[in-house]
Design a protein that fits this description.
With 136 residues, the chain is of the alpha+beta class. It is built from 6 helices and 4 strands. A hairpin with a 2-residue loop joins strand 3 and strand 4. The relative contact order is 0.09.
């Protein structure tokens, strides 16, 4: 976390510190920062199989914006994910594909190559009649 935010030589710096992502002063000080972070982690769901995740990808590492999550949850919270609205819910393409039982690459194809909205893409993926395929 510290290297990604502070070290320009870190390979992930551009996606963190280079975008202005910082660590709160409570966690990022030499005197008691690690102790503060450790206490927060132990009181907020830390487990060896989880990793720290920023709820708002454009926000800083701070207690109100961090949580411990599994790899699947973290992958769905990446800023590089393409998200779609489907029936009032904002989902990644992978989440939508999983929800209806098709491969994410197929969903991506329906949405990007064909330029369809999520309702039309789901209808096509389920094998529905798409007389209005050219509607965007």
């Amino acid at each position: 976390m510290r290297r990604r935010c502070h070290s320009r030589s870190d390979r992930a710096y551009q996606r963190y510190g280079g975008r202005g992502i910082n660590i709160c002063k409570e966690w990022d000080n030499l005197e008691n920062g690690f102790h503060n972070f450790h206490n927060w982690a132990m009181n907020n769901g830390y487990a060896d199989n989880l990793s720290i995740d920023r709820i708002d990808n454009d926000g800083n590492y701070e207690p109100s914006n961090c949580r411990w999550v599994d790899a699947k949850t973290q992958c769905n919270n990446r800023s590089s994910n393409h998200k779609v609205d489907y029936r009032g819910e904002t989902l990644t393409i992978t989440q939508l594909a999983n929800k209806i039982g098709i491969k994410p690459t197929n969903m991506w194809s329906f949405l990007s190559r064909n330029g369809w909205n999520s309702e039309l893409a789901v209808k096509a993926a389920k094998g529905g009649d798409n007389n209005d395929r050219n509607v965007k």
